[in-house]
Amino acid sequence: MSFMKEFDHLKIPMKDIVSATNNFDRANVIGGGGFGRVYKGDLSLPEGQMITGDEMILVYEYASRGSLDRYLGDTSLAWIQRLKICVGAAQSDVYSFGVVMFEILCGRLCFEYRNGKLSEILVPKWRKCYVEKSLDDILLLGLKEQMDIGSYNSFSAIAFRCVNKDREERPMMAEIVKELEFALKQQEVLENLGKKVDIEELKRIADLAAPPISYGAPSQILLLLLKGLFVDNGDTWISINMNGEVTKVVSATKCFFGDNLVTMKEKRRGFARVEVNTQFLSPHVTYTIYVVFNHSVQCECPCYIPFEYKLEEEAHYSTSCIAYVKPNGWLMTKLYQFTSYKGQENFTIEFMPRDNISFEDEFGFEGIEFQPLEYESCKKQEEKLKVVGNLDLETTDFTELIKLSKDVILEWTTKEELYFLLRKGFLIDKEKWLSISKNMKKRLILPASTFLKDEEWTSNSIPCSDSRFNVVTKAPNSYSFMIDIKADLQLLTPPSTYSCHLLYKLSDNDKYSSFEGPIVIGIIDGTRSHVIPLSICLNTNCRTPIIGVKDDTKSSMSLNTCKMKGHPKLRKDGWMEVQFAEVVICTTGATKEASTFRVS
Fold it and tell me: Keyword Kinase, does the record have it (predicted)?
């Protein structure tokens, strides 16, 4: 039987079996079956080994409640229980264990008997199904509906590697256990999700699906809604997150009304009105309302927001600060935040083109999206650096950099002292501030006076407690300015991707301190001659309006606490910081980065 060659490496001499059973002494018989007596004995071998001599013998670890094969086809043995069995049983030969994993997936043993004879080993068929992505065809009926997709993929992938024909390609048992524990954790997340949701409410949502869907166990409903489904004749998309909170997207064709609508592409000109409600949303959850849109000048400025908006009952329009590009190319920006309650609420939002720009091109809306707010504490905990005895520091290289300091004498006696010294940083040539990051990559700060044109800016001396450079550069004379940056790459760590940040403060007496819209930045890289459009916000009070809160208390509330790219953050040294570019440092030498900033 050529298919038995799969198990040649598992053959064990008969003499070991004879010794373990005391020459098959009847005193060691513990049962019997269709293939003969079952003996007990002590062997220093893992379970599932196939033994051959003149006869064929199977060896399994003794199990007081019976062997696993009794339960393989039992549909009451849930997927999470099967995962726990695998995690607890990982001490076998890798190939054998892979076979057991496939048996657990398929709910059957790995061989077939016909007419009392072994007729087929199923492992080659199982491998083929995995390669051809048809594993679902051989799964135990009803098991797939219980599975988290990540858990299923992790489990089947490691099982397939275990039964690889090439022994060198099989994973080590430590890796198998790690992958199984990961698969179990993924499944436990799904199981825990079921405890957080109102499953009856989710059933009501699932029953409204368009087109209609069928489902069985509650876990199947969870899996369906984690992926998302359409309701309202396909005009509303409903899904849940891992906290069991509902996310809703309403299409523009359902919720947008107004004049001059081009309905084929959901394009809007002039005034537009949105009517949405809180149906299906989770109670007692704080939501952010987003609008998803695009416009014809997107290629020149993809993050620009060409409209302002307000609730129907509000007197003044608001302008959102930042738009985010979704993976499908559409833009989305925050409009409002509110807390959902059991009763249904209705919102009417009015949109108008922004007055301070030339707005001749069409722009389109995809819809309105309700997302649960993910809180992130604004209060930063103190940084706790755990210094390991053997720090990975290139001491000679850093020592040479420290010698470049002209104004201070830096001393250290241990690697730990050197690490903290470099983390804090120091002046080089009185105009560059050099430090290292937590992972010991070099960081460089350049004073504004070195890259802003003198005719547009003025530089004034300030106390050293207010600036590393004892100087501040103030007040542009126009609504745009150029940044011409030259950085010595020997002071950086190639190859690395560096983010470029603008450090600034807005004066209380400065008209820019009340600026609420985005700054649109065109970054012109002289080496590649291209423009990268971007939007950032310099206003430190740029917050999403909160529905249901009086105007005089909105400024003191901060539901919007998530970190968002393009929004400023307060540094420990009192300056504001906002990222405006990223550059890739590949080689040593010098680089030049020219940037143009324009206020919209």
Answer: yes
Q: In this structure, are residues 521 and 595 in contact, taking their beta carbons and an 8 Å threshold?
A: yes
Residues in a beta bridge with 229: 238
CA distance 152 to 140: 13
**Please, where are the H alpha helices in 54-196?**
79-89, 94-106, 123-131, 149-162, 173-196
Bridge partners of 338?
287
Read off the tokens for 68.
């696993």
Closest by CA to 542, choosing from 315, 300, 377, 333, is 333
Is 2.60.40.10 the CATH classification of the domain at 241-372?
A: no
- Cβ-contact 556, 565 below 8 angstroms: no
For the stretch 252-271, pLDDT in tens is: 989 988 654 443 334 445 57
Query: What is the tens place of the pLDDT at every residue in 143-188?
Result: 888 888 888 999 999 999 999 988 889 999 889 999 999 889 888 8
How far is C-alpha 474 from the geometric centre of its chain's CA atoms? 39
pTM of the model as a whole: 0.60
Q: Quick check: 588 and 481 in contact, CB under 8 A?
A: no
Reduce the secondary structure of 256-310 to three states and give it as a string. Answer: EEECCEEHHHCEECCCEEEEEECCCCCCCEEEEEEEEEEECCCCCCCCCCCEEEE
For 88, which DSSP code?
A: H
Q: Are 502 and 580 in contact (CB under 8 A)?
A: yes
Task: Measure CA of the first residue to CA of the last residue in the chain; give whole Å.
Answer: 78
CA separation for the pair 555, 363 (Å, rounded): 31
β-pair type (426-428, 363-372): unpaired
**For the chain, what are the domain ranges?**
2-192, 241-372, 438-599
